Amino acid sequence: MYSTTDLQLFIHTADLGSLSKAARQLDLLPATASASLKRLEQQLNARLFVRSTRSMRLTPEGSMFLDYSRQALALLNEGQALLNADGPVSGHLRLSMPSDVGRNVLLPWLDAFQARHPQVTLSLQFSDRVIDLFRDPVDVAFRYGPLDDSTLVSQVLAASRRVVVAAPSYLAKHGRPQAPKDLSSHNCLLYYLQHGLFNNWRFYSGKTAIDVKVRGDRMSDDASIARAWAVAGIGIAYKSWLDVRQDVAAGRLEILLEQFGGEDTPLNMVYPHRSSMSPSLRALLAFLREQFAALKLPQ
């Protein structure tokens, strides 16, 4: 019989490439972690890792056993979730989310979720940086757009797309762009994404992509600042509809270039593997889908 702790340690070590990092995440002493991995290898009569001074790399046998280990823990978690389905949802979730949608959309919903499930505790991280779910102490991340990492499990929460917005005060002073190319003569508000400064804005005319390289007098590593600058009448922003929908509804911002399609930016809930789907996470996913379903999302 294999210990679930041994399997969890094995999976974390494979994901992180380090036994010591895996031990810290699972709150195990280094000696305990080393003994756990040795015990698992003895039970299997196989070597799971090639060890070096800097990292641990899976052997072919380790790669094969990793898939089965993930499936085994996923089944155990599903069984536990079924047993606890009639009881109160509890547990601790560590969440990472983009700054703007996190503060203005998700935060009040998360407060309502905890009011419904008071035995759930949350740790929240607001950042536009794409965190590494295998290395950072985060259970779930909310991300915009298609995923670069196919090893992650993704649940789509809401469709969305980028829209060009500006305040009425800015438009009164500087005029309204009529085509994407007109943006080159406007002050565009920039922010940083995973691959650097987001200053190449893509639009669509039918199926034809139109790329425009824009410039502006200010930029930030926090995309919510770009929205705040736009509301203040400083320039034009290119943001997800979910980020600016309340400002548009209140008249603080106006959508521009509506005859051109913006980039699709679906909001996803992402986690490392299906064994991460605890009862509390399952309840959160269902709750958020209820909230997003009530919104009138753009087509």
From TrEMBL:
Q: Report domain HTH lysR-type positions.
A: 1-59
Q: Where does the chain cross the membrane?
A: none
Query: In terms of domain of life, where is this protein from?
Result: Bacteria
Keywords of this entry: DNA-binding, Transcription, Transcription regulation
Would the keyword Repeat be found if you checked this record's keyword annotation?
no
Q: Name one Pfam family in it.
A: LysR_substrate
**What are the GO BP annotations of this UniProt entry?**
DNA-templated transcription
Q: Which family does it belong to?
A: Belongs to the LysR transcriptional regulatory family.
The record's section on PROSITE patterns has: HTH_LYSR
SUPFAM superfamilies membership: Periplasmic binding protein-like II, Winged helix' DNA-binding domain
Q: Where is the signal peptide?
A: none
What is the name of this protein?
Bacterial regulatory helix-turn-helix, lysR family protein
One annotated GO molecular function is: DNA-binding transcription factor activity
Cross-referenced InterPro entries, in alphabetical order?
Answer: LysR-type_TF_proteobact-type (IPR058163), LysR_HTH_N (IPR000847), LysR_subst-bd (IPR005119), WH-like_DNA-bd_sf (IPR036388), WH_DNA-bd_sf (IPR036390)
